[in-house]
Each structure stands twice: as C-alpha cells, then as structure tokens.
Design a protein that fits this description.
Layout (H helix, E strand, L loop, with lengths): L4 H8 L34 E6 L6 H9 L3 E6 L4 H9 L12 E6 H11 L10 E7 L3 E3 L10 E7 L3 E10 L2 E11 L16 E4 L15 H19 L6 H14 L2 H6 L8 E4 L4 E4 L1 H10 L8 E9 L3 E11 L17 E13 L2 E8 L2 H7 L10 H5 L11 H8 L26 H14 L9 E3 L5 E3 L40
Parallel strand pairs: 1-2, 1-3, 3-4, 4-6, 5-7, 6-9, 10-15
Antiparallel strand pairs: 7-8, 10-11, 12-13, 13-14, 14-15, 16-17
C-alpha cells in the first residue's frame, strides 16, 4: 500500500494549508530519490539552468556542462524583481526524466536572488530543486542559516568584496522580518579559501566574472578550482556516477606498454585543445597533432622501464597518480633526459601525474619529478662537488638526494617505524644522536656512487715514528713537557699584586 504522507499530514493539520510539509524520517525507500533505481536504468540527462543578468551567456561554460552530461538551458535574469522570481517558480526538471529534478548555476545579481529565494524552505515545495551553485553573488543569506536539506548549495565568493548579508527569520510557512547589512568577505582558511559558513563556501583571489570565458575578468586558475568544486557538487546532487579510470588506463597502456597510440590518442578530448607537459623538462605537446608526433617519435623508453602505482586519487574531473618509476638508461629518453645520450646508469624516481578530464576525456596532464635526483643518478650531478656559483653563495654541498627517496617510499626504510625522512641534510639535526640514523642514507648514497662508477676515496693513513698505523681522522695526542705519567698537569695560577692596605678599590673608583 502506498501512503502519501505529505497529504496525510496536511489533512490532519488543516491550519497547515498552503504550507509545505516535510517528511523528516521514513522506513521505506523514497521513489523520488534518483538512486532509487539501479544505475543501469535508462535516464534522461539531468536538467541544469544557468542564469545571469545578460541576455546571452558564455558559450564555453554552457558547452562544458553539456559535455558532462547535463541538459543545459540559459535563463536570463531580465529586469529582475517579481518577474524573475516568477520565472524561478516555474522551473521544472526534464519532463522526460523519471524524477524531474533540476539544478541552478547562477552568477552575480541573479545568484544573489536565487540564494535568497531558495534559502526559504517554502520556495521549493515539491523538492525538485536539488542543486544551487552561486558564483560571486552580490548578496548572500544569513551565514549561520542552513539551506533546506533537500538543496545542495555551493557559493563561490570574491575575497575582499563587499556583499549584502540578508537575514530573515522563518518557520514553516511563516516568514519574519527581512534585514540586510553589508560585510566584506574575508579570505578563507588554508590555500583553498574555505569559509566557515552554514553552507559550503569558498573565496577566490580574483574579480567578479572570473569564471566566464568571454569576460576580461576571466581567471584560468580560479575558474578551474571553482569548476572542479561545482562539478563535484552537481554530480553528488544529481546522483551521477562517472568512472574516469578506464579512459586513463587506456591512455597509459598505449603510450607506455603496447606502444599502440590509437587508444592513447582517442582518450583525449575533442571539446578543447588537449595538452601534456612533463614539467621539469617542458617536453610534451599542445593539441592532438603535436601529441601524436611527441608520443610516436620522442617517447621511446628502454625495456627495463617499470612503473609501480603507489597511490591514486580520483575527483570529479581529476586523477592524481603517485608512481615509482625505474629504468636503466640504455637509450635516449627525450621526455625525461632530452639531449642526453645513454649512460647505462640505473635510475629510480617518484613521479606525480595530475590528469584533468573534460566530458570523460583527457584535457591536460601535468607530470612532475625530481630532475636533480635523475641527474645525480646518471652521474651528471655530484652533490659533493658544488659549482663555483654555489660556492660563492657559501654552499659546500648540494642539498639533493639520489635513489634514496624513491627507494624508501617503495620499500620502506626503518622496519620499526613508518616514514622516510632522516633530515641528514639539515645541519645540527642529529646533534646528540648516536649516529645510528645516519647509516642508511650513507649506504644509499654509496649505492648511487657505485651506480655511477665512482669509487669511494681510499682512507688515508699515516705512520708515526713508532710505525704504528693510525687513521688520519684520529686525534693526535701530544704530551706537554711538564706532564708526567699518571698525574694531572698542574694548573698555573697567575697571582695579582696585593693592593695597598689589603683592600681592593671600590667599584667606580680608580686604582
């Protein structure tokens, strides 16, 4: 038997007529929940409304949301006021969808009106609005007031910008007095600009308009951060599940293992110009043609190359891999050692690959590693031999390590505790230690020297007149003439002449 709990409550409480009743808890599955049906059930793209003041909107942003699987429609704000609010009340989801839920991404003044309107519980009576994202609104609701729990809200604010703060007390069906004050948005905490409001909010060091590609205020870094957060919020609210791993693994398989570039090239987006950059050497390619040329002609690797995935982090539009890479440098490798002939040296390093996706395809990849460690391991850089320019700066030894970093992360270092750092390069860190912690690092450095074909310098010895062999580093003991065996040398005391009258001059007086 199906029970309409909302209408039942309204019938039991006649004075609630015209107000929204909400089910706080129930023991049965909610058929309106997008996750009620299996993920294989045919679905229409979720509806997403973009809204701002202008009659037309940034075509690139619209295309990006469409590429992520949303049915996008632009809603101009027009003259605002009641006319705009009436438009908001008339919004509906995709009528061909099973649930007709929808989301709103609003900008500027339109964002301010949407935030204030939907912060009131009764303005989403059928619970169809699931998502509300606001970019640089000119006003925000009470920072201590939560949105109705059926709406996932996300607000992107400008640090240092003055905004209106609207407070309005409310009960179910009853709205109190509306008050608006103005406050300056303070930078959020950490590097991400997180604010401690009742609804998810972030700040950006940018100008209003930073997320719109067709404006002079567009800021690539801020727009990218906000996009990742917005896409993640939209997918959670709309019940979207997108598996990014298969397309990334096809890319890796083709360029590193099978050398079949067809799946590699097909993994790149055609929506934008894809690009790959190996950051330490600035090698790679921009656009599909350059990438195909780079991977077919300049990405050769020796058969000894081995990749070990240490960790993988997957976001809404990003994959971050931490990889242990090792190889014997038996051929030229332009992506990591451009212009360097084969050295026959063994190398192991840690590589971090950050892949950004658009519409389920690779948009760009940034790859990082420690190039100084690579040069050290092939014998092109010796930390014990500082260049003249470094010596002029007072640097006697280059603060770099060889294979130790990669080896320790892969295999561990101390079996009795976790962690890899030994702080051997920090002067004074081991003062007072027994020296036990120094040994592993020295051993690893010796392995790098052996790999380079460099022998350790032989320990010099000297012979004293009695032909006893002693190490040069040992402290030489010289007997003083007055020192006799078994006796401590007497301490010489310098006697001062006695003052006249047996008294010392008082402080402040002359002698």
């Amino acid at each position: 038997m199906s029970i309409d709990a909302a209408n039942l409550i309204k019938a039991a409480v006649p004075e609630a007529e015209g107000r929204s009743a909400r089910i706080i808890s129930q023991n049965v599955s909610d058929h309106r929940d997008p996750n009620f049906l299996s993920k294989d059930f045919p679905r229409k793209p979720p509806k997403l409304y973009l809204t701002a003041e202008s009659d037309e909107f940034d075509a690139v942003t619209i295309a990006e949301w469409q590429a992520e699987g949303f049915d996008v429609e632009y809603l101009p704000m027009g003259n605002g006021g009641d006319e705009y609010l009436q438009k908001l009340r008339g919004l509906r989801g995709n009528e061909m969808s099973s649930f007709e839920i929808f989301g709103i991404v609003a900008y500027g003044d339109a964002a301010a009106m949407c935030l204030e309107h939907y912060h009131i519980m009764d303005n989403n009576p059928d619970f169809k609005l699931k998502l509300l994202i606001a970019y640089y609104p000119t006003a925000i609701p009470d920072p201590k007031g939560q949105f109705p729990n059926n709406i996932s809200a996300l607000v992107h604010l400008i640090a240092g910008e003055d905004v209106g703060v609207t407070k309005q007390s409310q009960m179910i069906g009853i709205q109190g007095k509306r008050r608006t004050t103005h406050k300056t948005i303070q930078p959020g905490i950490g590097t991400g600009g997180l604010l401690s409001l009742a609804y998810p909010s972030y700040t950006y060091q940018a100008q209003p308009g930073f997320a719109e590609h067709d404006l002079d205020e567009y800021d690539m870094i801020s727009a990218g951060l906000a996009w990742s957060r917005s896409l993640a919020a939209a997918r959670r609210a709309m019940g979207q599940t997108v598996d990014l791993e298969p397309v990334w693994e096809e890319n890796v398989q083709g360029k590193f293992f099978t050398r079949n570039l067809k799946p590699t090239m097909s993994s790149y987006t055609t929506h934008k110009s894809p690009h790959v950059t190996y950051i330490p050497t600035l090698t790679g390619g921009i656009g599909a043609d350059e990438l195909e040329e780079f991977y077919s002609q300049y990405f050769g690797n020796p058969k000894s190359l081995k990749l070990t995935l240490l960790s993988r982090t997957i976001g809404a539009d990003r994959i971050v891999d931490e990889i242990h890479v090792r190889f014997k440098h038996t051929q030229e490798m332009p992506w990591i050692l451009p212009g360097v002939p084969a050295t026959q040296k063994r190398v192991q390093i840690l590589v971090v690959s950050i892949v950004t996706m658009r519409g389920g395809k690779l948009y760009h990849e940034h790859v990082y590693w420690d190039q100084a460690s690579v040069l050290y391991q092939i014998g092109a850089l010796d930390p014990d031999v500082a260049p003249e320019a470094a010596r002029k700066l007072g640097i006697e030894k280059l603060p770099i390590v060889g294979s130790a970093a990669a080896s320790r992360v892969l295999k561990g270092w101390d079996p009795e505790e976790e962690g890899e750092a030994d702080n051997d390069l920090i002067a004074g860190w081991h003062d007072g230690d027994d020296g036990v912690n120094d040994q592993p690092q020295k051993s690893e450095q010796a392995d790098d020297k052996d790999n380079q074909g460099l022998k350790k310098p032989e320990e010099k010895v000297v012979r004293n007149p009695e032909e006893k062999v002693v190490k040069k580093s040992e402290e030489k003991v010289v007997k003083k003439p007055e020192e006799k065996a078994g006796k401590e040398p007497e301490e010489k005391v310098s006697k001062q002449p006695e003052e006249k009258g047996g008294e010392k001059p008082e402080e402040g007086q002359g002698s």
